[in-house]
Amino acid sequence: RKLAVEGKTMTNGEPTTTTTLQKNPLQEKLEREKKPQASMPEAQARALISGCSSCAEVIDALKRNCSSTQAVILLALEKLRECLLDAHGLGGAMDRQRQQQQQQRPPSASSTMDPFDPSKKGFRNEGWAKLMMMVMSSHSSNVIVQIESLRILWTIATLHQRYASHLVSNPQIKEIAHAMERHGAEERVQEYGCGLLACLASTDRHARRLLECGEGTFVARLMRALYCPGGKGHVQENALRGLVRLSSSLSSLSSSSSSFCEEDGSRGVDAAAESFARRMGRHVDDDSAGEPSVNAITAVIIRMERYSNNLSVQIQGNRLLWNIFDPDDIMDLDYVDILVGKTLKHLKHVMASHRNSQGLHETIGCLLSKMSRFMQIDSREAFLRIAADTMRAYSNSWIVALHGCRCFANVYARSPQTSSPLAPSSSVDGIPEIISSMETFPEHRGVQSEACAALSAICINAPPNKAKVQQLGGIDRIKSAFDLFHPNPNEDICVTTKIRACTALISLAVDPIVLSEIRAKGIITKFIYLLEEDSDIPVKLRIVIQELLQVASDGEDLGRSLILLDTSGEEETCHCIRANLRVITSPDFTPTRIPSVRSSVLRAMRRFPLSASVHQDGCKLLACVFSIAFDDGDSIPQEEILPEVLETIVLSLAEHKNIAATAAAACSALQNFCVMLSQSDSCDSPGLNNLLLKSLSEVVSTIAIYNRDRDNLEQLTGALQAVCAMREGLALSFETDGTIDLLVAAMNASPDSVQLQRQCIGILGQFFFVSQRTIDFLNDGIVAIIMRFIEKEVDKDDAADAIDIAINIILIISDKGYQGVTALLRHERLVDVVVSCMFKYPNSSSVQCAGTDILTNVSLDNYIRADVCHKGGTSRIIYALQQLRDDTQVVSKAFSALANLASGAEVEILLSPDAPAPVIMVNAMTAHPQNLNVQICGAYSLWALSARSDAFKREIVNAGGAEAIAAAMTRFVASKEMQAKGFVVVWSLAVPRDLKVRMGQCAIEPAINGLAAHMSSEKICEEALGCLKCLSTIAANKELLEDNGAIEAIYSCMWLHTHNQIVCKAALAALCNISVNVETNEVVEITAEDLNAIVVVMRANQTSKPVQESDYTTQ
Fold first, then answer.
1. How far apart are the first and last CA of the chain?
2. What distance in Å separates the CA atoms of residue 574 and residue 580, rounded to the nearest whole number?
3. Most exposed: 540, 586, 866, 1099, by fewest CB within 10 Å?
């Protein structure tokens, strides 16, 4: 502070100097902001505001009356709006005043002195923004003030980006969201608030600032505004526009092309835009519990359906869907198909309601082009129909043309390559619309490029479409697209357009008629000169041009005769067969010509039986014919001519097996013939039996010739496998012809040929599955190649079938007793190989069953059992029991294996927290209560596990094992084996004293019933009496035993098996425990008949000390 002379006043006529304490200006400003001034009286405030003539004066007046009445605030806001519009030359009164002053201004006055310059009359700093937030905060409950505040803010933000920056950078901007939240049901608050946010988000920088503010506050408010009731959709229009701009700002972070419909259409939605869809979904105003992205897209579609008459809602909705609809952002792909279907249904309805809106159709075209990348083929007709209608309705829009062409290209490119023409009718094939677009926009590179790509995809699998493109002048349009001028010929868009044009010509040139027109127009000649003269052609373009020239070169031969005449010589016949081969392998070939081609080539092969060239080309042609017939299904030869076809192929192989190429062609034809026949009803024709056996013999003899030729061996083994598949017993011929040794030698000679290895494994499987003499062919060589095959192929996803066959071959070997098991155990990695198969295919029942049985068979002693456990075998079996517990075969085999391996398994593995064996075993038993085999195997495996220690017994009982065993014994009381296994496991589980009560409650009744049902069996009596003896050692179970007739059952056993010392000893021991209660010092009274039974037993077993001692104790 400092003293300063402020001025002079007159006191009694004398001037007096007054001094004041002058403050720092910055400190004064801070104190004023900290302590707001009191508002003026309303009349004085209204007069002050009415007299304001500039924005600065209004802001000052509003600052002094920030907390005044509603009328004052509304007057100030309206005055501010009027002054601001005047400052920017948008007010009517100000315009008239400007004209008057301009007339009075001297001619030499400089334009820089214009008093109406916005920079002088508008806002000079961001203070106004803070004041507006204070006004809204002070009158937060006054809806009228909130409406007018949002309206004036929207107006201000629209006038200049500088004003928008003032608002966005203001820390109190959240007051806008608070106003929308407090007055969520007020339509005008939501409309102006959404409009203001959309205006502020018009630049990426401002939009990202809004997204960063308040952790999604503004996204939440825009999403809630979508559900604002009433009105004609103005709120939803502004909300959607704001969401579009916010999502676009995120997309622009990783994509330099941020416009919705750029020329080359190369913009993609990145991870940020996907994240925005999830942000939206978290604020959906309903009870949806699905994925956030799905909820967001669904909400947008529903709002668009609700306000289908509002054109702006539809346009902004399409733009937003284009930004957020991405299948990679949706985990359940079923929702993608559902959302695409809903979108298509809505677009069809909206197009009918707004036929005259070009903007709507442009956004529809853009949205369709994006969805075409992931839509399902099943909805392609409706999809393409909408795209075609859009292109026809607004053929003058390059946006519609570009995205419409891309839509057709994507849909046709995603169709199966072997399908018939995709479009079900000519109205949706898109060809007229695409060619029309090329004619309308001849200089537009994007349209030309996408159109060429679409024509290529449309024609590649549909011969009729090739003719249609030709008739509509498509060749000229494609040629013009290639010749389109570009200042930089090597730019990507230019090269891409030329490549696509050449690709379209290649698709068309397959048709000989279309190719002739392409030649007539000089296109082929032009490309030849282009390659010769221009050495700077990009590599990719050069390759495509060369491919087109190759197609054209191959097409020269198609004009020659395709008819095989009986008068033709050998050379001419070969030429005709090759010409037919070219035709039949072209996409334009129709399966209806197969019968005539087949009969012609068979006739030619019979005419020249000694010509290797005729038979080589003829077999190649037959192989193609059979392949097409297999795919077509309707062109399979009739049953009566099948022997003729097969005989011709076999004779060709027999006569020319020494010529490698001919032998390979014959085997290829034989393989395709068998594969084709396997799907027809003629497969079991008895007329083929002898020919199939003969063909098998010829193939085997040919393998012996080319046992070192990898390429030929692949063809030969493929044919051999196909022939063996025709009849189950054909592989039995391998027992005498040495085929097994040939296959082993072939696999060893070509270990790197995946195809050969898989085919040989398939053939070995066919032999081992049917032969009863496999033990005669068992040696270390076969075991080694099978193990080597599994080790190489087990990690390949496409080797599942071959691995299944290989591991089942190992199973068959392990089932051959000691010789088979020892042969396997000589391979040190046997257990590792089997476990790796089980690990790779956990859901394959066949692999799990085979692996489990193999581990069971080879676990001959504790050393091997421990090795199996150490290498993960026991863990895999437990996992298979858990994973496939619904498969009774897997469950039974797993129980049997665990019964064998439990004694050698480590406790940590059996009681693993992730897969505790007792719990999994009990659950598997209870999952199949009606399956006797599962219950027997399960009981036996539980007994083996419980024998390890009392800890396992407790785990089994705690998992419900006692109840499961009791239920099985009750359900299958007639099964002697079930009762025997049940008695043993109950006996074992009842050993710990703390488990006896629970075991007694569960098992006493079924145990006595089982004993009564099978009392004639000495083995059953022995196990049952031991079980009852174990249960009767505590007083709590004695009463249950007496009530359920245990004593009578024991006496019955003694009478039936008087001379069986073991049964009598067990009966007397059990009777002693049940009859005498040591704790209460009580003894059950017996009858004279019971005493007589004891005496009879003593007399019958006078020489048995254990029986006599038991009798003495009992008495």
1. 121
2. 10
3. 1099
Is residue 608 within 8 Å of 651, Cβ to Cβ?
A: no
Burial class of residue 770, CB neighbours in 10 A (0-12, 13-18, 19+)? middle
Query: Which residue, among 704, 728, 703, has the nearest Cα to 714 in the 3D structure?
Result: 703
To the nearest 10°, report the CA torsion of 345, 347, 349, 353.
180
Helices (H), ranges, 534-641? 539-555, 570-584, 594-607, 612-632
Count of beta carbons in the 10 Å neighbourhood of residue 789: 25
Q: pLDDT grade, residue 581 (50/70/90)?
A: confident
Say which amino acid occupies 560: R
Q: Which among 636, 556, 626, 634 has a CA at the least distance from the CA of 584? A: 626
Q: For position 1087, what pLDDT does the model report?
A: 66
> 């301009």: which residue's tokens?
102
Backbone angles phi, psi at 21, to 5 degrees: -90, 105
Among 649, 589, 642, residue whose Cα is nearest residue 616: 649
Token pair recorded at residue 1113: 């104790």
Which residues have C-beta within 8 Å of that of residue 458, sequence separation ≥ 6? 408, 412, 422, 423, 429, 430, 431, 434, 465, 469
Compute the average pLDDT of residues 617-628: 89
Instruction: Please say if the pLDDT value at position 651 is more than 80.
Output: yes
Over residues 817-839, the mean pLDDT reads 91
Q: Write the pLDDT tens digit of every residue in 509-558.
A: 887 767 768 877 888 888 888 877 776 788 888 888 888 888 877 555 44
Locate tokens 């409706």: which residue? Answer: 382
- pLDDT value at 1046 more than 50: yes
User: Can you tell me the distance from the alpha carbon of 1009 to that of 97, in angstroms, rounded to the nearest whole number?
Assistant: 115
- As a whole number of angstroms, the distance between CA 1054 and CA 1066 comes to 10
DSSP per-residue codes, 719-780: HHHHHHHH-GGGGGGHHHH-HHHHHHHHHHH-TT-HHHHHHHHHHHHHHHHH-S-GGGG--H
> Residue 680 is encoded by which pair of tokens?
């027809």
What 3-state DSSP class applies to 21?
strand
Average pLDDT estimate for 436-463: 90
CA 72 vs CA 155, 218, 1028, 1060: distances in Å? 20, 30, 99, 116
Tell me what the mean pLDDT of segment 299-319 comes to: 91
Nearest to 304 by CA among 282, 325, 328: 325
Whole-number Å distance between alpha carbons of 259 and 249: 10
The full DSSP string for 623-653 is HHHHHHHHHHSS-PPPGGGHHHHHHHHHHHH
Question: What local confidence, expressed as pLDDT, does residue 974 receive?
Answer: 92
Non-local (6+) Cβ contacts of 217 within 8 A are 174, 177
Residues whose CB is less than 8 angstroms from the CB of residue 389 and which lie 6 or more positions away in sequence, other chains included: 351
559 pLDDT above the threshold of 50: no
What's the distance, CA 556 to chain centroid?
46
Q: Are 416 and 378 in contact (CB under 8 A)?
A: no
Q: What type of residue is 41?
A: P
Taking phi over 0 as left and psi of -120 to 50 as alpha, with beta for the rest, 262 belongs to beta
Residue at 1096: amino acid letter: V
605 three-class SS: helix
Q: CA 186, CA 193: separation in Å to the nearest integer?
A: 11
Structure-block tokens of residue 403 = 């995205």
| Residue 233 DSSP SS3 | coil
Q: Which two tokens stand for residue 224?
A: 């809630």
* pLDDT range class, residue 564, cuts 50, 70, 90: low
Select from 944, 936, 844, 853 the least CA-distant residue to 894.
853
Rounded to two decimals, what is the model's pTM? 0.51
Task: Say if strands 1082-1083 and 1076-1077 run parallel, antiparallel, or are unpaired.
Answer: antiparallel
DSSP bridge partners of 18: 7
d(CA 687, CA 691) in angstroms, rounded, equals 8
Kindly report which listed range (145-149, 172-176, 419-423, 907-911) carries the lowest average pLDDT score: 419-423
Report which of residues 516 and 934 the model is more confident about.
934
